[in-house]
Design brief:
Layout (H helix, E strand, L loop, with lengths): L1 H11 L6 H10 L6 H18 L6 H28 L5 E2 L12 H4 L19 E9 L5 E3 L8 E6 L2 E8 L9 H22 L2 E3 L4 E4 L2 H10 L1 H11 L2 E11 H19 L6 H32 L4 E4 L8 E12 L3 H12 L4 E9 L7
Parallel strand pairs: 1-7
Antiparallel strand pairs: 2-5, 2-6, 2-7, 3-4, 4-5, 8-10, 8-11, 9-10
Amino acid sequence: MAHVYAALTLLKAGRKPTSEALKRILDAAGISVPESDINALLALIEAAKAMDAQKPKNEEVERRLEKLEGEVRHLSAMLEEAVKATQSMQPTVLTHEKPAVKEGSEEDEKPLKPSQGGQTGASEQASEARYVYCVAYNGGRSTLGGIGLDGCEVYTIPYRDICAVVHACRPEPYKSDERKTVEGWVAAHEEVVEKALDLYGAVAPVTFNTLVNGGDSQVEEWLKKEYSRLKTLLEKLQGKDEYGIQIFLNGSSLKEELEKELAELSRELEGKPGTAYFYRQRAEKTLKDKMEARVKALFEEFYTAIRACVEDIHVGKVKESGGEIMIANLSVLVKREKLERLKKTLEDISGRKGFRVRFTGPWPPYSFVG
């Protein structure tokens, strides 16, 4: 995934991705990527460029590129959160019933010390904590295999008809100064959550570096205490997936809409002495105000149309995107049987002159677990 991120960085900077340029970036970051993977990526980029010059465009290539970009953004966002988490001196610890200890005892006062590069030697006998990936619908105890962080064995701890998906670890956060190491942990965390989603149908994912101090019994106590809330949350997420939606408008297209009003302003001031400066000031303010009003109206129109197709929706911050204006940046929770309806709505939006829609997913519902 690092070579994909490097290629997107070059493209954003207006530079052509080449094998040599990618290798230089990866070497500087201390990351090793097989040359076959780099060549495959470059071939995909060239194919996309060739298809872009043809009419109609190859929809399959576009779909693959959109999905690839979405995966990079999704993992990059998780990576940034993980980097912040590894810089913290303490992990996130879920509320649970701690084993009773005598006040003032050595165990009660024992601090948590951060590890410097992950956890080694964690085992069922030696571990004093459980790393939690998600909570899922599953009333039985099962094993998902050695797919966890650093290859740890992942398994479920059930309570009634729900379970926590965990691995055994020491009560210390996963911490490293090496970005590549953190990338590996984030990818493993995401893979476990997606595996659980495939197996159990509904999951409530938790953030990277979430631990429960103690053993399986402490996790079971936490599930028991939070059962009503967790069960309600899983019922909300059952049969639904998260998707990302970003809607863009070509800046020149919007400017064309406003040229008529600017032309009228120009005629109003034409021939009046000493008005050039004031015209520029008024023109800039008029353009800015009209653009903001137009963008707001478009957002409200698209939000209303999309909201009717989804179960829940979160509005994210809009970001700069070259010569395009981002109208909306949304995360949506969609019933699987309503997905085609949502896609049709987005196709109608993207079919309008000057508009482009980026649609990614499905993802585990990180944005909707509270």
